[in-house]
Specification:
Elements: H1 4-7, H2 22-32, H3 35-107, H4 112-125, E1 129-135, E2 141-146, H5 166-177, E3 181-183, E4 196-203, E5 208-216, H6 218-225, H7 228-233, E6 234-239, E7 245-247, E8 270-275, E9 279-288, H8 295-345, E10 349-354, E11 359-362, H9 364-370, H10 374-377, H11 392-403, E12 412-417, E13 423-434, E14 440-449, H12 451-473, E15 476-482, E16 490-491, H13 493-499, H14 504-513, H15 535-538, E17 543-549, E18 554-564, E19 570-578, H16 580-607, H17 609-636, H18 641-669, E20 677-679, H19 681-698, E21 702-707, E22 714-716, H20 718-739, E23 747-757, E24 760-769, H21 776-780, H22 797-807, E25 811-819, E26 822-833, H23 837-842
Parallel strand pairs: 21-23
Antiparallel strand pairs: 1-2, 1-5, 3-4, 4-5, 6-7, 6-9, 8-9, 10-11, 10-14, 12-13, 13-14, 15-16, 15-19, 17-18, 18-19, 20-22, 23-24, 24-26, 25-26
Length: 856
């Protein structure tokens, strides 16, 4: 049997196997394998042995048969070459005799009769020589002698001229080259085999004198030149240059059925070689007769094959038995390894005690927890090495309870000491250890390290305490209640101070703030929305509202949002912050802003007082003049009724004009609550121009305006927008005065056009002057409060204007106008949006028209 070392593949060279002795190297390699691999290789040994044995038998038979075939081929080659040598010598001998006759003819030593006698002697003496012919220089036959066996059609007649056949071509070749020529004519099917021709030249004293043509029978040449023992051993044949058979019978292997017990016969070997004097036109071919192994050889082969198959069957049975044994062994090892792997992968420490409390088993997790090895723990009795000294009494009592069967289902917590002296918390569970016969042999204890979980639990408790402390210390009320239930899930200290520990305050805040919250009246202590998806609701942004709680006397900002409570219910959290102080501050700021706006208007009218006085002086002077004139004419008696009527109409018109001026000034100065109504842009511009023109005429400044047609109404406080326009126009006139422009250059232009900003339609008001513009340092602080370039200015005009515009959701800007690099003026503009369709519908009845304003 082949050993595992013999059947195993050669291992890869390793630095560990450096021995020069192959046996020692294989022994070291075999020992380096695992037991499982050794068993597998040993199980494959029978199969490898059978395979090698069968391979050796087949190789031996194949080698012997190949040797036999090779020897036969060598013998055939040797014998065929021997036969070819015999034919070559025989042809050379006949060639010498024919050339001797040709030489005698060229010397004139013999004549026709002597040629015939000598030809008869040669033909009679040598069977292969069939015809001997003398041909003159013109290709005409002088005389010819043929053997009796030559067919009639192959005879050469005297005076006959050689034609253009093979004989004529060979004659012409000899005539041209003066050399002897062999020629084998082509075989014609259905005719007698052609004779091999040999032409020897007959040379005269000075020129070509003809030829002596000898014709051989190839079949006779083969039969008489080849040894009889070769003819008996091989099938000898003669072929021409095209491989056409000329003489002999080729060997054809018959298609005979072979018996199942016989080995396949090899193909008959053959060897072919040309005849040297003739050349490739005549070749000899030998074929060996095929032989088969004897019955004794076949029987020996099958005997060996049968023994091999029997041996293979026996070894295969052994191999199968070995494989079954290996599979059972591998299954057992796998099961053992699996159980050991499960045991080693457990994070729970396992400890087994006998009935006396002695440790009989510990797993790897228990050893890893305590730091003690298995050999150190197994066999210990109380007190164990991992017990803490301070807990000896407690642990002894627990062990006694354990051995007496008093075990707790939930286990108990202990302190365990590691080998390095450190401590950790563990929970110990006890259960009886029952063997396969159902008898208790001891106690099994499982120990779990709870240090990390205890630390996390303590951290969670501390975090909860911190969270509670923070919420309790907040200056805002925080409450959480589930939807569809009257239960209060959480309430901090401030909520309890304000509303107590009931849900009433929570629901009051939700209801008064108008926050979305519905409560089921038919379901008590149950979430009516249970089962619905809460992610879209809880991820939504919170809702804010400001309410006044009369019971508390406070303004509260209430924020609410939905959240998923710890038990999965959908709850609502409400945070209420006391904003009473902020609301008071906002109201005070609003009042101060109102006062600032009124003060600004008063300051503006104070600055325009002289212009207003000049404007009022004209109608008053006219009224005085008309009254004095009427009195004088009335005293003189020259006052007619028509003149009185005319004077009274003029007086009334001037009085009405003075009243309108006073009315506009009073409306501008008087400040009531903000009143944003739908107003036409044209009426706002007209009202502002009535007051601004007074100031512009006093300063000798021409004021022009342009209002685009069909501008939609805007939702605005007309008095505030008029105040912005008047301030901008007044500032433009002052800038022109400071620049000291000529009369032609003293111009202020007001333009009102529709404009779209960021996709929103609106109206742009722009005031453009021809003053000296704004300095860079002034542009940076232009809209700051209490910043002014005037000696007597308060610095609230432009700041207040921008505040008014931004309160209308608009924007305000300022820029210099250039002519090349020279500043030629300044342009102030502000933009307010148009009223939305909803705002138009709500304020349609309050559109301001200049004809409907009542005097204050």
């Amino acid at each position: 049997m082949v050993s595992p070392e013999q059947k195993s593949p050669a291992p890869v060279a390793s630095p560990a196997f450096t021995s020069a002795d192959p046996t020692q190297w294989w022994r070291m390699w075999w020992r380096s394998l695992s037991p499982t691999r050794q068993d597998r290789l040993a199980a494959l040994a029978p199969l490898v042995s059978v395979a090698l044995f069968m391979a050796a038998i087949i190789a031996a038979f194949w080698y012997l048969r190949a040797e036999e075939v090779d020897r036969g081929e060598q013998a055939l080659k040797r014998d065929v070459e021997y036969a070819q040598q015999r034919m070559r010598l025989r042809l050379l001998e006949r060639q010498e005799q024919v050339m001797r006759i040709a030489r005698d003819l060229s010397y004139g030593d013999i004549g026709t009769v002597e040629f015939g006698n000598r030809a008869e002697v040669l033909v009679t003496q040598y069977p292969e020589l069939q015809v001997l012919t003398w041909v003159d220089r013109d290709g005409r036959i002088i005389t010819s002698y043929a053997a009796p066996t030559v067919p009639r059609e192959q005879l050469r007649m005297p005076a006959e001229r050689l034609g253009k056949d093979s004989a004529g071509e060979s004659f012409q070749q000899v005539k041209d080259s003066y050399q002897s020529v062999y020629h084998q004519p082509v075989v014609v099917p259905g005719q007698n085999p052609p004779l091999l021709q040999f032409h020897a030249p007959v040379m005269g004293t000075s020129s070509f004198g003809g030829t002596v043509m000898a014709e051989y029978s190839v079949d006779s040449l083969m039969r008489y030149a080849t040894p009889s023992e070769l003819l008996a051993r091989y099938a000898i044949t003669m072929t021409d240059a095209q491989g056409v058979l000329i003489a002999g019978t080729p060997l054809k292997r018959p298609h005979t059925a072979e018996h199942w017990y016989q080995i396949a016969k090899p193909e008959a070997s053959e060897y072919q070689i040309p005849i040297s004097p003739v050349g490739n036109s005549l070749q000899i071919k030998g074929q060996a007769y095929s032989t088969s192994l004897s019955m004794v050889g076949n029987g020996m082969f099958w005997l060996v094959a049968s023994l091999s198959m029997m041996t293979a069957w026996l070894l295969l049975g052994t191999w199968r038995h070995t494989r079954k044994r290996l599979r059972a062994q591998e299954a057992l090892v796998a099961e053992t390894n699996f159980r050991r792997a499960m045991e080693n992968s457990l994070l729970t420490g396992m400890r087994a005690l006998d009935m006396q409390g002695r440790i009989t088993y510990v797993n790897a997790a228990f050893c890893q927890m305590t730091g003690w090895s298995e050999s150190e723990l197994v066999g210990q009795t109380p007190p164990y090495s991992y017990w803490t000294e301070s807990d000896y009494d407690y642990l002894h009592s627990k062990l006694n309870d354990e051995l007496s069967g008093k075990t707790l289902q939930g286990g108990f917590q202990v302190r365990v000491r590691r080998k390095n002296g450190s401590m950790f918390d563990a929970r110990l569970y006890i259960s009886p250890l029952i063997d396969a016969r159902g008898q208790q042999t001891g106690w099994m204890s499982s120990m779990t390290d709870i240090t990390e979980s205890k630390r996390i639990r303590d951290q969670l408790a501390a975090s909860h305490d911190r969270f509670t402390i923070v919420l309790e210390a907040l200056d805002a009320s925080v409450s959480v209640a589930p939807l569809g239930s009257a239960e209060l899930l959480f309430a901090n200290k401030l909520y309890r101070q304000w509303f107590g520990s009931q849900t009433t305050g929570h629901l009051q805040l939700v209801q008064q703030a108008g926050l979305p919250a519905e409560r089921s009246e038919t379901v008590d202590d149950e979430d009516g929305l249970m089962g619905f998806p809460t992610d879209p609701i809880t991820s939504a942004s919170s809702n804010n509202a400001e309410i006044y709680v009369a019971e508390l006397g406070k303004w509260l900002e209430v924020r609410s949002r939905y959240l998923s409570w710890v038990d999965g219910r959908l709850a609502q959290m409400v945070i209420a912050t006391d904003i009473t102080q902020r609301r008071m501050a906002e109201e005070q700021a609003a009042r101060q802003a109102e006062q600032a706006q009124s003060a600004s208007r008063l300051i503006t009218m104070g600055e325009m007082a002289s212009s207003v006085a000049h404007e009022l002086n004209q109608p008053l002077t006219a009224i005085s003049n008309y009254s004095s004139g009427m009195l004088t004419r009335l005293a003189n008696g020259t006052l007619t009724e028509e003149q009185m009527k005319f004077a009274l109409e003029k007086t009334a018109h001037q009085a009405q004009r003075a009243g309108q001026i006073i009315q506009r000034i009073r409306s501008f100065v008087k400040r009531s609550e903000p009143n944003r109504t739908m107003a036409q842009v044209e009426s706002i511009v007209d009202e502002a121009l009535e007051l601004a023109n007074i100031e512009m005429r006093r300063r000798n400044v021409r004021l022009s305006h342009f209002v685009a047609a069909r501008i939609p109404p805007v939702l605005a406080d007309t008095i505030l927008i008029e105040q912005v326009l008047i301030n901008l126009i007044k500032n433009a006139g002052e800038s022109i005065d400071q620049a000291q422009r000529t009369t032609a250059q003293r111009l202020v232009e007001l333009r009102v056009v529709p404009k779209e900003v960021e996709g929103q339609l609106g109206v742009e008001f722009s005031v453009q002057d021809s003053g000296k513009g704004l300095a860079p340092e002034v542009q940076e602080r232009l809209f700051e409060a209490f910043f002014s370039t005037k000696n007597e200015g308060m610095g609230i005009g432009l700041n207040l204007c921008r505040s008014i515009v931004e309160s209308h959701d608009g924007r305000m800007a300022a820029e210099n106008l250039y002519n090349g690099s020279e500043v030629v003026g300044c342009r102030f503009s502000f933009w307010i949006p148009l009223a939305t369709p909803q705002e138009k519908g709500d304020n349609l009845s309050t559109v301001i028209n200049p004809n409907t304003r009542n005097p204050a």
